[in-house]
Automatic annotation (TrEMBL):
Signal peptide feature range: 1-23
GO BP annotation list: proteolysis involved in protein catabolic process
Taxonomy, superkingdom: Bacteria
Entry keyword set: Hydrolase, Metal-binding, Metalloprotease, Protease, Signal, Zinc
Cofactor(s) the record lists: Zn(2+)
Protein name, UniProt field: Peptidase M48 Ste24p
GO cellular component, one term: membrane
Single GO MF descriptor: metal ion binding
Species of origin: Sulfuricella denitrificans (strain DSM 22764 / NBRC 105220 / skB26)
Length: 483
């Protein structure tokens, strides 16, 4: 969570919806019905880039940024659209992702970088995204997702700004872009990426390895999801089988083998040196979740969400969901504190019934709460002024019965907002990746015991070191740990 976001992307998309053009697909040479010319594509990318930077944040490590950009530029030069100006950015997100906006804007999360083990694998991720750009998948996708986006944008005008329509729009658009473009487009991006790998001097088989990394993430998440009683996540969303058995993937990557240089170097040691010290998991500038406590060192506050609720920290808000998904608490930052918290509620919140205000300090901080019903749902809203900023806690439940069940948990979460204590500051430190060589006798179980990653530590460490679901470190081999 950093700051509330602007609504600029919404207007950008609405304007674009009026423009439709036919363009020649740079990869196939055929006419494609797309809604953008190349210059419009670049403009759209630029606009989206501002949003992505605000939404995700750029990972604060210029050396790493330069390194990733260098690798990306080398690949892009060999691509079908070498004339385009490419931009490669590491975004400050723990999620496992990479994505491309139209016009050559490509992003990789620090989250996925933790699981890659060589420069060739990094190049495979970037090459795949370049493939989406050169084949203009993102343009086609952008056009397709636009109709839906406009619906969301219009919807957001009807609800109070607190609900953040643009956030919904972004996640919708984001999902369309991130979760893939359908099997055929993904395979095409894999094929193009493999080709660019070969032409740049990497082994194109790194593409198969990367898909394997994503598949392992999926298997591991399915294992955790079973324990948590939730739906597992899908990466790439498409691969039913493990990539080793995926004949079409092997086929499209195999085409690039004939272009490969005889002695391709994966540049493993160079990559591992670059990611030594990389933040793993939540970052301190965005707040850290520890045992359902949300701790934000930068903004100086802490909050305790109900014990078994799922807490998700995104850039502009933190959302906690009850285990049954029938109750929700959202924490938002709403700009400079003016007047009193009660004034803020009176000015900004209209409930259908209720509206009664309760003013009381919360842990010594000026605060006010309001409860009632909005759009047939029970709600409770808490506003706290802290260090000249307005913090909002917005709690709601699916039904009055669910609200009653969560009432105490919601009230104590709102009542737990506090200035960060010194003892909590230690907990708010991020976990970092360390790269070194394995010592004799080290096992993933022993490494897991020393790591701060909790009950799934062994799985994470195995995934990070390409040793999932079994396998142990060999003395002298490269090893990543989290400390
Ligand atoms: Zn893709």
């Amino acid at each position: 969570m950093i700051l509330p976001r602007a609504f600029r992307l919404v207007t950008g998309l609405l304007c674009l919806g009026l423009l439709a053009n036919c363009a020649v697909n740079p990869v196939t040479g055929r006419q494609n019905f797309v809604m953008m010319s190349e210059s419009e594509e670049v403009r759209t990318g630029q606009k989206g880039d501002e949003e992505v930077r605000k939404e995700y944040g750029v990972y604060d490590n210029p050396t790493l940024q330069r390194y990733v950009n260098d690798v990306g530029q080398r690949l892009a030069q060999k691509s079908h659209r070498g004339n385009l100006e490419y931009h490669f950015t590491v975004v400050d997100s723990p999620e496992i992702n990479a994505f491309a906006l139209p016009g050559g804007y490509i992003y990789i999360t620090r989250g996925i970088m933790a699981y890659l083990n060589s420069e060739a694998e990094l190049a495979a991720v970037l090459g795949h995204e370049i493939g989406h750009v050169t084949a203009r998948h993102s343009v086609q996708q952008y056009s397709a997702s636009m109709a839906a986006s406009i619906g969301v944008a219009l919807g957001s005008i009807l609800v109070p700004e607190l609900r953040g329509g643009a956030q919904d729009l972004f996640s919708l658009l984001g999902n369309a872009l991130l979760s893939g473009y359908g099997r055929d487009h993904e395979l095409e991006a894999d094929r193009l990426g493999a080709e660019y790998l070969a032409l740049t001097g990497y082994d194109p088989q790194a593409m198969v390895k990367v898909v394997g990394i994503l598949k392992d993430q999926e298997l591991f998440d399915a294992e955790i999801a079973r324990g948590e009683g939730r739906e597992p996540r899908r990466y790439h969303g498409l691969f039913a089988t493990h990539p080793d058995n995926d004949t079409r993937l092997k086929e499209v990557v195999g085409e690039a083998d004939r272009l490969a240089q005889p002695k391709a170097d994966s540049r493993q040691a160079i990559y591992l040196t670059q990611i030594n010290g990389l933040v793993f998991g939540d970052s301190p500038s965005q707040g850290i979740v520890r045992d359902n406590r949300f701790l934000h060192d930068g903004l100086g506050f802490g909050l305790n969400f109900p014990p078994d609720w799922k807490v998700k920290n995104s850039l502009d808000r933190v959302v906690a969901l009850s285990p049954e998904n029938d109750g929700q608490i959202e924490l938002l930052l709403a700009g400079p504190a003016r007047g009193t918290p009660a004034d803020f509620l009176r000015r900004n919140i209209r409930l259908d019934t209720g509206n009664e205000l309760d003013t009381a300090l919360i842990n010594g901080l000026p605060a006010a709460t309001m409860s009632g019903v909005r759009q047939n749902k029970p709600v409770k809203i808490g506003v706290i002024f802290f260090r000249d900023q307005t913090f909002i806690l917005f709690a709601t439940a699916k039904t009055p019965a669910a609200y009653n069940q969560h009432r105490t948990a919601i009230s104590s979460a709102i009542g737990s907002f506090h200035a960060l204590q010194d003892s909590e500051r230690k907990l708010a430190k991020p976990n970092l990746i360390h790269t070194r060589t394995a010592k004799r006798g080290e096992t993933f179980a022993s490494l897991a015991r020393q790591s701060p990653l909790g009950k799934n530590a062994e799985g994470y460490l195995r995934l990070m070191n390409h040793a999932y679901p079994s396998g142990e470190p060999q003395a002298g081999q490269h090893l990543k740990t989290v400390e």
